[in-house]
Amino acid sequence: MSVVGRSAAIVLLGVGEVGAAELLPRLGALLATPPAELVLCHVIDTGVRGGLDLAHGFGPHRAVGRHRARIVADAERVEAAGILAEAMPSAARIATRAVTEVGEGEPGRAVCAVAAERGADLVVVGARDHPDDRGSTGPHSVGHTARFVLDHAPCPVLLLRAAV
Amino acid sequence: MPPIPVLLVAAVFVAALALAVVRPWAVAEAWWTAAGAVLMLALGAVGPRGAWLALWQQANVFLFLLGLMCIAGLADAAGFFDAAGALAAGLARGSGRRLLVATFGVGALLTAFLSNDATALILTPVVYAIATRLRLRPLPYLLAATFVADTASLLLPVSNPINVLVGGRLHWALGTYLAHLLPAAVLVVLLNAAIFLAVFWRETGTRYEVDWRQLLAEAAPDRWHLFLTAAALVAIAIAYLVASAAGAPIGAVGCGGALLLALVATGRRRLDVRRVREHVSLSVLLYVAGLFVMVAALERAGVTTELTRLLGRFVESGPEAIGAGTIAAAVGSNLANNVPASTFLLSGSAALPPAAQAPFLAGVLLGADLGPNLTPVGSLSTMLWLVAVRRRGVTVRAGDYLRLGAVTVPILLLASWALVAATYRA
Predict the structure, then answer these.
(1) Taking CA B202 as the corner, what is the angle to CA B200 and CA B204, rounded to the nearest 5 degrees?
(2) Does any CB of chain A come closer than 8 Å to the CB of residue B139?
(3) A45, A56, A72 member nearest B372 (Cβ)
(4) For the segment B211-227, what is each residue's pLDDT rounded down to a tens digit?
(5) What's the Cα-to-Cα distance from B17 to each of A3, B14, B250, B294, B392, rounded to whole Å?
(6) What contacts B356, CB < 8 A, 6 or more positions away?
(7) Lower Cβ count inside 10 Å, N or C end of chain A?
(8) CA A91 to CA A97: how far, in whole Å?
């Protein structure tokens, strides 16, 4: 069954930690015709890295050293590259052209920014990264990233819930 | 010189601490406590001789701090902490949950001998980076390393500079320290690991693949440097224990150990001064110095003894003394920082009946070592005041941390109090 009738030229898919393995085939099934360009966007959530600030040594607050900060950033980039590399083969199957983009910052905000920048016709987000026992519907079924994108995206949004 | 009103002295102290917490204009805490100390001197609340005496009496603490920062920096430059992280990843054999437990184990061992400072500031980013590279959710591991730094800092007299500070008054032989505190220290680490395993059971349920030998090779490009550093660290650990047992100043041992590690690095021609300097922070020494002078002024004005005597009225037995010390230190650690809290209570403990002093100080150790994880005051205030209110992602993390601390810390404080109280009853 196809939902989006007109062929969307540029589709942006927000890829979380879990990856796009589950989302991509379902997206392909929903689109009437393959989009001209599918952008796989993974955002490095710097909020978690900000938790490093919570670690306190003795006495006054000291930030993580420059050397350490570089290693942390490198690790995040390696993870992002891995996630996107895994998703690319499936993405190439459902779109004419598939590209990757890595963003940094708060995930919802970054996805909207990339969508605006690239002039996306459609943004696709998963409801949650890890569906938990609170169920696939109801107020807890949509994570704060998806919610932000729903509220702020510059174009239509397709929300993919967990496969029931 | 007219007597300085007690309220004024107390007000300067509270203001200095409050400003150190809030850090307006991002001015470091050390400048606020130093300013407070200078103000106290200017007001005549403490004389130059009194101030100098307050600093000189704690020379061991300063040396110990300097030594431990240098040791941590030199060990880090040798890749010791990265190697420890790689070892943890290997030990866990692909299980996310086992990795959480391994983080606690490795973190506890490092804290025991290298102090909470090293674990919190060096191991935590190492664990975060490894978890990220292994495609695991990094938050549980980040929080585990953050918490174990404080939780495990009860294990040995050298595991936390606060232990050295309070130990200077307690004058406990190593055997006495271990008899009173080791059972509690081990229990809280196990409890903390168990609580985290339960809270993060689902998030850590993933498996991972790692070639830990590869990680190890990346951690230490020069294997001999790593090996010699590890051997030197073992020697330093033994020296710490011997010095504690003999009652010798461990500040000197710390500095000697730092020198040894620097020699090793120079011998391998891998002394990276810039990288070591990243971990040595002179502002810590200034912060502590400012506090010592201010508390000396408070002591002279009678503030510390009066307040502690107030506490002492509720104290009738050993276990109650421990409880009073624990609660006072835990509350103070979360209002300001565990250094001013423990220095204040240390100074005031002289007002207590002699029999109650040692258990009270033991309680202060519990509260000051374990208490700080309840609320991340220093960093939370910064985040809240500058950035986090707007960035929801960061606020969520702070909320997670607060909830976790609110659950974990009271349990740990209660359990440790119970075990230490038992050693006094026996």
Answers:
(1) 65
(2) yes
(3) A56
(4) 988 999 998 889 999 99
(5) 61, 5, 29, 10, 28
(6) B312, B315, B318, B321
(7) N
(8) 8
